[in-house]
Design brief:
5-stranded mixed beta sheet; 5-stranded antiparallel beta sheet; 10 strands; rod-shaped
């Protein structure tokens, strides 16, 4: 074999044997994450001490992990947040009309009952402080899998965007006081979804 052929053979042999005894990138990754058994960990640790190439690979891997840890967690966009809110429009249920019990003993309008996804909401109004104002009273009943609603938000939203906010109490009542008479949208923020009553005349 002449010198040229010998050099070519040695070159190809070196390429074939290059890092033959080195652990694979997968094994190095599992070593760094402490996912290998103790005996394998000892073997890889000893090899890294002797192999500058594997030591460099390990340093590079640790740098990548540190950079990833510094990256802020992705935040959902406003569009994603809107898509996650399930809004259910309640429908008016028409039982025989009956007078509602006044919140302060005053005469109230007949109550109206709405239903949505196992939740029943009974709405009544009574006179407010002035002639053009009312107090809106809501009673919430959940026939299926009732949950604690105390502190959940309720909103009355006028076409102009004016919003009245109240909290549902421990007895599942919600009261909006001194609301100007008109047509509103009522929203109840329940744990799993938001119930909406559209075109609520008060």
């Amino acid at each position: 074999m002449d010198a040229a052929n010998t050099a070519d053979f040695e070159r190809r042999l070196k390429q074939a044997m290059y890092r033959f005894a080195c652990p694979s990138p997968h094994d190095l990754g599992e070593y760094e994450l402490d996912l290998v058994p103790p005996e394998t960990r000892t073997q890889i640790a000893g090899h890294v001490l002797r192999c500058p190439r594997c030591a460099e690979d390990l340093r590079h891997l640790r740098t990548l992990q540190a950079d990833a840890a510094l990256q802020p967690a992705p935040q959902p966009s406003a569009a994603d947040s809107v898509r996650q809110v399930v809004r259910i429009v309640a429908t008016l249920f028409e039982p025989p009309l009956r007078p509602a019990v006044g919140f302060r003993g005053a005469e109230a309008t007949p109550s109206r009952t709405y239903r949505a996804d196992g939740t029943t909401l009974t709405i009544a109004t009574e006179p407010g402080v002035t002639r053009d104002q009312v107090t809106v009273i809501g009673l919430i009943d959940q026939s299926e899998a009732p949950v604690d609603l105390a502190g959940s938000a309720a909103r009355l939203i006028a076409p102009s965007g004016a919003t009245f906010i109240a909290e549902i109490d421990a007895l599942r009542n919600v009261v909006f006081e001194d609301v100007p008479q008109g047509v509103y949208q009522l929203e109840l923020e329940l744990p799993q979804h938001t119930i909406v009553i559209e075109d609520l005349q008060v």
